[in-house]
Every structure is written in structure tokens, then in C-alpha cells.
Amino acid sequence: MRLTEHPVLRFERGREVTIYFKGQPIRAYEGETIATALHAAGIRVLNYSANEKRPRGLFCAIGKCSSCLMVVNGIPNVRTCITLVEDGMRIEPQHGKARLPGEAKPPEFKEAKVVRADIVIIGGGPAGLMAAIHAADAGASVVLLDENPMLGGQLVKQTHKFFGKRE
């Protein structure tokens, strides 16, 4: 099951792509995370605990816990709740502690970009957003950095409590 509307936020569904979970094709959409696509397909178990081998599913959905760690394209410990789908991805549940495959290569990084600002704010949650707004209002040039693809932090999951419904 996928959301088609949100009471406050607006979103556009991306292009349909196919990912593979344990070899089986799963329909996904560009712009959604791996965990979201798996959840929409009815897949609730993402990995198994290291000691007791208990099943684990989606928990924090912001990349801060280990419940969504999976093997993606042969690379273990991928945080699937914040990793966006790509056409053709191969996903497997992770069983306990991960081991890097012998042929694993480090990821390729993009060239660094030099950006100048009066103030750099790290963290795009509610406090970081307010700090950026106030600094900009005071005339400072501001760079706001966040590790997630969307600003708002936990606020994104709680919009209805703060803003009511979109009407």
C-alpha cells in the first residue's frame, strides 16, 4: 500500500522502476526509499539481529538505528530507510553482523564543491531551519547542511500535529 495523498505535504510520484528483493521483482518509484518500496510490497522483515537472529523491520525511518540495514548490490549495512531506489537494485536481508565481500570496492565520490557563507548550520531539523531563517533575516549568507534528502528531520513525520490538514 502506498500513500497517494498527505494531509499537509505535497509530493509527486517519480518514474516507475524495478528493484529485486531476494531475486523477486518489486515495483518502486524514483524518489522513494528502498524500505518504503519494500513496505509497500508487503515486506516487513528487513534484517535479523546479530545475537538472537530475531527479525527486524522498519523502526526510526530516518537512518539513526540499525533496523533497516540490508545488503544492496552486494554491499552490506546499507540504511534502506534513507537510501533512494535505483532501477535494477538487488536487495537481500542482512543476517546478523555484516561481512564485506572480498571484491568490494569503495564508493566513488563526487568532486568537492567550494561554497562560501557567513554561517554554516549543520542539521536541517526544526531548530536548524529556524536558525537558518533568523540568520538570513539578519542579513547573513547561510548554508544549511543535512544528511537526509529532505529537510525537516522528525518534523516531516509529524506535520499534522504542527500544521493541521492541508485545506
Automatic annotation (TrEMBL):
What's the short name of a Pfam family annotated to this entry? Fer2_4
Assigned keywords, A-Z: Oxidoreductase
Domain of life according to the entry: Archaea
Q: Locate the 2Fe-2S ferredoxin-type domain: which residues?
A: 15-97
Return the SUPFAM superfamilies for the record.
2Fe-2S ferredoxin-like, FAD/NAD(P)-binding domain
Keyword Oxidoreductase on entry: yes
What name appears for this protein in its UniProt entry? Sarcosine oxidase subunit alpha
